[in-house]
Sequence to fold (796 residues):
Amino acid sequence: MRTENLFPLLERTRRGLNLILTAVQIIRFMTFAGMAGGLFILIIRLAGWPVANFTFWIILVLSGGLAGLIRGWSQRLDLQAAARWLDEHFQNQEAFSAALTCLERNYSGSLDAFVMERAEALMETHGIIRWPLHYLKKQALIAFGILCLAGVTAVWRIPAINHNLSQIQLNGPMADKASNKSQQIFNRIALQTPQELAEQLFPRDAKLAAEAEKALQSGDIERLAEIMQQAKPDLDTKLSQNISPAERKRSELEEEQRSQMMQTLQRAMSGSGRNNQDDAKAQREALEKMFGRRDTKSIRLENFWLDKEAGTSEVPLENDSKKKTVVRNNKNRNKTGAHQYIPCDGSMSPGDELGNQTGNWGRIIPRSGSQPAAIIRRNNHSVLEYVLPGKNAAVPLAGILPDARRTAETALVRNGVPLEYSDFVRSYFFELSREITGNLPESGGEK
Amino acid sequence: MNPSIKEHTKKENAGTEFLVNIREKIEGLRRVREQISAVIVGQDEVIDLILIALLCEGHVLLEGVPGLGKTMVVRTLADSLALRFSRIQFTPDLLPADVIGTNIAIQDEGGSFRLQFEPGPVFANLTLADEINRASPKTQSALLEAMQEQAITLRGVRHQLPRPFQVLATQNPLEMEGTYPLPEAQIDRFFMKILVQYPSESELIAIIERTVGSAIPEAQAVLDIEELHSLQRAVREVVIPPHVSSYTARLILSTQPDHELALPQIRQFVRYGSGPRGAQALILAGKAKALISGRFNVSIDDIQQLACPALRHRIALNFDGQSERVRVDDLLSNIINALPVDLTRPAGI
Fold:
């Protein structure tokens, strides 16, 4: 009797089954962890709490896998279980289990020899062991589905939710405009650079896109209109040709998008306070407002700040008789290096005046040794301005707002800022844009 | 067989002469089975179960309407094993002495009288107690005591019953009026309760053809008592793997309505479940079945197949169960279906 063959067979079976069972446990625990993690991330995102990212989810899933490994290891099968499985697998009527029992009791039973004899005969005739991989596959498939779902939840930035919330938050204060599609387009335009907008207008024509970008940057709405008119014959030509329906549909959509954007641009300009919509200057100003083109005065102001930082000059700007600004040099920097805010009462040195800025303002002296910055409060504005070194405090707000708003919106979307802060930031920019829109005739480009 | 193991087995099991030619003896059992089948048409399960009970030296309660061949089966079994057969027709006026025997006064040559024990019909290898529930409880108890003790005691003298000793009692489930149903405690002493069913159409045709002709088949003795004794001893030696014992124990516990393993329907319909005697009967029956099948180890299948005959009379329904006409066999089938065989590995592997 080849009893020596029984143990290796059982041991091999035991190892195989333990491997499968451990794998199943790992998969199962990873699935649970992934599902729970995905749900957790989804909930905290919806609640607007600090967002747990994909790395957190991956760590959670791996921890689940580790827990599954530990559980699988702790619940590994013994030889009796392996024998039972073999008996069930080959329908042996418990031949291997009984043989193992006989072996374990050292053949002390009267009929043990017969039992071993039968087990030996079965060992010689049994077929290939078909491991229960279907069980593993089934578990793996279920796990894969759930993990994909949970993973998408974890990776997904919830664009729909963010977008909808963004719309709600942007449009919430101006509910009267919320339903207006052009307002949405306007919001989109306001968040795009001229290059992005141009590429969006002419996605398949680099030349026209470049020209449109130039027109947008220069604020030349007429040129933009010309480019669009130029694009239309090309489209008509295309449509008249024998092109595929998909191509035709795409071209028509592009044209529709272009016309919608053009209308929106024109409406935005007409809504900026100008009555005469044909006024080219007004159009230019509106585009400047939208895309932040810097004028010569802005450049002058920037130069002034650069000079001030160098401590070399104090450049009085136009209309500066009443408005006073002070920039102190590095002497006032304290030893600790921290920023120090010095409130100003308007009685500063007249030589430090800046443009037409009014009201009190102060300066922050960085303790770190970097350049000083200033906080300005204007008389006719409720908004404090924090002027960084090298930046121009006299740049029109309308000129920097789109960029700032776009940057802020990008940061909100990418970094998953909690909703209450997002709301605050968006409201802030909305208030700024509303103020600018309301004061455009007076304030556009003159600050 | 490996000579070393054979030698080891011989050394370790001195006094196991009953194992000599064990395979031939098992083959003899098959021949007995064939002899019975030659006389009895159908009733295969009944015959198998009676043989199992015989190997386990257990008593059998046969339940079925009259005329299904119960007596014929027992008589044929006795014939094929060359066993002494007796039949007792139980009636309400049957006395214990009519069953176990009595002392009678015998006059010797000197004219004096002495008491001599006259054995009753219970002194046989196979005793058919027909309609046992018609006798008074006193008479029933006399028989059941004999069944339990394998001996009777009369006027302080113990009389050993012949070996093998097996009682096959019958009950008619229809005519319950004027009967004395066996108490649960006494029913528990039966190793098995076998339900004798009506024959199928083909079986009925075969019965007609076989019994109404001129030639009535008769069984021949193919296994002697010594061989039967050997087999009865061998049954006890059949190997039972640990997980089969564990499964049997859980199966028994599942029949108890207060146990945590009990199914909801067991809690609802069962008054009391099986006890240790049921577990013993089930395991022993499993061993006998394995031996008859030519195996030397009990399998889960053996236990599952024998659960109903071994346990059905050990489970009592409560009022709800009786009024709902719940069948104990259905409850046992549900338990078997619900009870996992192996607790160490998950279902599906």
Notes: The first helix of chain A runs from residue 6 to 47. The CA atoms of residues 175 and 208 of chain A lie 36 Å apart. Chain A touches chain B through 39 residues (CB under 8 Å).
